[in-house]
Amino acid sequence: MNSFSNEEFDFTFLDEGFTAKDILDQKINEVSSSDDKDAFYVADLGDVLKKHFRWYKALPRVTPFYAVKCNDSKAIVKTLAALGAGFDCASKTEIQLVQNIGVPPERIIYANPCKQISQIKHAANNGVQMMTFDSEVELMKVARAHPKAKLVLRIATDDSKAVCRLSVKFGATLKTSRLLLERAKELDLDIIGVSFHVGSGCTDPETFVQAISDARCVFDMGTELGFSMHLLDIGGGFPGSEDVKLKFEEITNVINPALDKYFPCDSGIRIIAEPGRYYVASAFTLAVNIIAKKVVLKEQSGSDDEDDINGKTLMYYVNDGVYGSFNCILYDHAHVKPVLQKRPKPDEGCYSCSIWGPTCDGLDRIVERFDMPELQVGDWMLFENMGAYTVAAASTFNGFQRPAIHYVMSRPAWQLMQQIKEQGFLAEEEEQDVSTLPLSCAWESGIEHHPATCASTSINV
User: Fold this and answer.
1) Is 360 a catalytic residue?
2) Can you give the residue ranges of every domain in the chain?
3) Is the pLDDT confidence value at 216 over 50?
4) Residue 359: CB partners within 8 Å, gap ≥ 6?
5) Which of 164, 202, 350, 360 is catalytic?
6) Which intervals hold domain Orn/DAP/Arg decarboxylase 2 C-terminal (predicted)?
């Protein structure tokens, strides 16, 4: 494969010893004397690379198909494509985005169980064969618009302990699954496997165990009816930051034994997943500027709150809000906390503060209450872990533009990506520190998965 240049990715190299936080500070300093202090992101593509290594260390049998809906920034998609990841697309536009950067159709799963007929035809015309379904009506649409499709039956799960539940909208029950398999047989359609999604923000890893067990039942049904069942898609629900109750490895430590039990290495089953926030959440930090401020005296607010010991509360208005990047508060149940760009003085008092977005809507509140020192118009706040379900769903309501994104990557990370792109695989060394991004980690480039190779030293992308 040919090498590629950083111009293709439109990022800035981090000088040795510098971090993404240093770039944030640099960007802020550049506009310190200007009135144009627009909100902006700094995104570390090297963080995405580290997540890729971490994935294969924790889930060596599972090929990631990145959920494009989570963050469809072209630089993110290009980075993951260069690493050999697959892609979970939910629409014609997402398929076009991925294919326009050279991803072959076999590395795409059209993972939307309810598709417009014209978009099914688009998938067919562009070679995308893998797609999900969960109803008889969808089967009939596929039979008409894409009869050569490789279909994956999405089953419902118990997602009652997830932050964002999905089975209320998608998924077939075990009883319905048998009927759908029989109907697919009548329509001469090809069913190749089963998918599920335990919900975004999963808080109970045992949910995966039950879902994998249910998938095994549906596999057996399909095999009994004569289908060649060889694909299991375990969906998403993996955390992308460390500020969560349930850590990534706590989930994978439960998933791996379940996979070995119900879909052992010698079963010939290919296993994929649809991580989204896992890859991008921690890579993005958002910087917002205080554009207005209101001081509310205690007697004005009518508050009897003993915490308002300083006699006032503060309202800050910043230049991004819930109609922009912070839509994650409404749509993704996110709870965000500001980090001050300036270090407060040790003896500086704190006040009860609220933080508001720039629009004229009273709904546009980012933080209801947070204790921090008094700030001024022109000061900056930082919000970490802002890569998932933020920029992808942001609007320009009230004419406020989406923040610019400045991508960065260290030279060792870039060199490693070059090596992967050019050589296709790297030989693993013992227990490397992922944070140093060594130029040696195990994997095979390309999408073909070889289930028989199950040792932790083997990585198949």
Assistant:
1) yes
2) 11-42+282-300+307-407, 46-279
3) yes
4) 321, 323, 397, 398, 400
5) 360
6) 40-387
